[in-house]
Write a structure and sequence with these properties.
By secondary structure, the chain is an alpha+beta fold. It is built from 9 helices and 25 strands. It has helices spanning about 1-20, 220-245, 300-310, 325-345, 345-360, 380-395, 400-410, 420-425, 430-445, and strands at about 25-30, 35-45, 55-60, 60-65, 75, 85, 90-95, 100, 105-115, 130, 135-140, 150, 155-160, 160-170, 175, 185, 185-195, 200-205, 205-210, 215, 250-255, 270, 275-280, 285-290, 295. Strands 3, 5, 6, 7, 8, 12 and 13 form a 7-stranded antiparallel sheet that branches. A 6-stranded mixed sheet has the order 4-9-2-1-14-17, with no helix packed on it. The protein has a 5-stranded antiparallel sheet with strand order 10-11-18-15-16, with no helix packed on it. A hairpin with a 4-residue loop joins strand 24 and strand 25 (about 295). It comes from Pedobacter jejuensis.
Length: about 450
């Protein structure tokens, strides 16, 4: 009885915290010529986390001051020998020698300068990088360009918030913060009454529009836009039909130059809904105008992976130990299913055969033994994880597999750990015998790729 009471209290606490949506208000000044970003933000309606919270900012920023609701300058830990969490340094406001309890409002001013990558490029480009390339600047929630709250007890980043932001960038033709529409520079105001993770994309670029999407920094003709949008519509229709949850968003596609040197044919993408961004490719070059289709069939799942993040990443926002499995393995699995629906079963067969060769020496930590989300490596989350999901599909069938995924999506306010995985499967109708077989053959195996038919 005591165990159930504790679980109920934890669930109530989680619901209470998640019911409070932070609000971000303030000004941003971006200097494209020097890579400098200066922010003056008031973070209000901060959830009641007691002393179990941290404020995260990109390690490239220097804090000018943190003030309370009375405009009193606060002391804070993290300015010396600071601890990192992902891309951000962690800061904790203090009251005397202790943590400031339940601050309702924090006024944070800070500035930082970042490299401008033009001729000399970085060794890596990823979503967590604040990227200046001489033409545009890109800063996502993962880069922690605005103050992110970390909920220690629930091991959760609170990245989504309502906002009112004014951006000044004298060198920028267009400025965009997701949750609002792109606006002409050099000064623009943005507002969202719906909680979202703000992404900043500013610089010298134009806007293209279709009925279903916006395209930033692209140069497609009408035919290319039409074909590209139709493929996106096909993906959304398939996911809507299969997962029984409408795809309720108008996407914004961003094309931007990578700050990492890419070999020919290399590209990557990321999602920060409703934005889907691609680096290292021209979207128009993907289109076969004569046959009104994508030139390369492998481009279809590449794009579908990002589209699938509407579900796993937005409808369900993963956390806890299986964060990467539920964020990336599910999206990759769904991208293969979308391509299988469009091109037939041989496409999926070739996909898994090709990746099985890449995984011949791979040794997986069983999902039920994962203690740290980052134990799920890039190879695990993008390549091996989809095999585990395909294995479950082999045991229970496609229809019931989508019922399981739907159950994951509609289950709210849960930690996405192994118990979540198992409980959603059982709740969706997977029998105990089926789960035991799956767990024995796939989950507990160091490498189960040979079992995929």
């Amino acid at each position: 009885m005591k165990r159930y009471l504790i679980a109920a209290l934890l669930t109530f606490a989680l619901l209470n915290v998640r019911g409070q949506t932070p609000h971000l208000k303030g000004n941003v000044d971006v200097v494209m010529a020097t890579g400098q970003i200066t922010c003056d933000f008031v973070l209000s309606n901060i959830p009641d986390l007691g002393k179990d919270y941290q404020i995260l900012l990109n390690k490239g920023f220097n804090i000018n001051a943190i003030k309370d609701s009375l405009d009193k300058t606060l002391s804070y830990s993290g300015f010396y020998n600071g601890k990192m969490r992902g891309e951000g340094l962690t800061y904790v406001p203090q009251k005397g020698d202790d943590v400031l309890t339940n601050p309702k409002l924090l006024h944070i001013t800070y500035t930082g300068a970042f490299p401008i990558y033009t001729d000399t490029l970085n060794f890596i480009d990823f979503k967590g990088l604040i990227a200046f390339n001489g033409k545009t600047v890109r800063a996502t929630d993962q880069s922690k360009w605005y103050p992110i709250i970390y909920d220690i007890k629930n091991d959760r980043l609170i990245e989504q918030m309502t906002y009112e932001i004014e951006v000044k960038s004298t060198d920028s033709k267009t400025i965009f913060v997701n949750g609002d529409v792109p606006k002409p520079g050099p000064v623009a105001k943005f507002k969202s009454d719906i909680a979202i993770a703000p992404l900043l994309f500013a610089g010298d670029y134009g806007i293209q529009k279709t009925n279903g999407a916006l395209f930033l920094n692209t140069a497609m003709n009408e035919k290319e836009l039409s074909v590209f949008e139709q493929n996106i519509a096909d993906m959304k229709t398939y996911f809507n039909k299969s997962l029984k949850i409408p795809y309720e968003t108008k996407n914004v596609f961003i094309e931007h130059a990578p700050v990492e040197k890419f070999n020919k044919g290399r590209s990557w993408g990321f999602v920060s809904f409703p934005v889907i961004a691609f680096a290292g490719l021209k979207l128009g070059d993907m289109v076969d105008k004569e046959h009104s289709q994508l030139k390369d069939s492998t481009d279809y799942p590449f794009i579908a992976h990002e589209i699938a993040h509407y579900y796993f990443g937005n409808v369900l926002q993963p956390n806890s130990t299986l964060f990467w499995f539920f964020l990336e393995s599910t999206a990759e699995y769904l991208s293969v299913k979308a391509a299988e629906d469009k091109f037939g079963k041989p496409f999926a067969t070739r996909y898994f055969q090709t990746r099985a060769k890449q995984l011949k020496d791979f040794k997986a930590v069983p999902l039920n033994a994962i203690k740290d989300m980052n134990s799920i490596s890039g190879t695990y989350r993008y390549t091996y994880g989809p095999f585990l999901l395909r294995g479950l599909e082999q045991i229970i069938g496609e229809k019931r597999m989508f019922k399981f995924l739907n159950t994951c999506l509609i289950t709210k306010n849960e930690l996405t750990d192994y118990n979540f995985f198992k409980n959603c499967a059982l709740k969706s109708g997977v029998t105990k015998n089926e789960w035991d077989t799956y767990e024995k053959d796939f989950i507990q195996s160091e490498n189960a790729v040979h079992l995929i038919k």
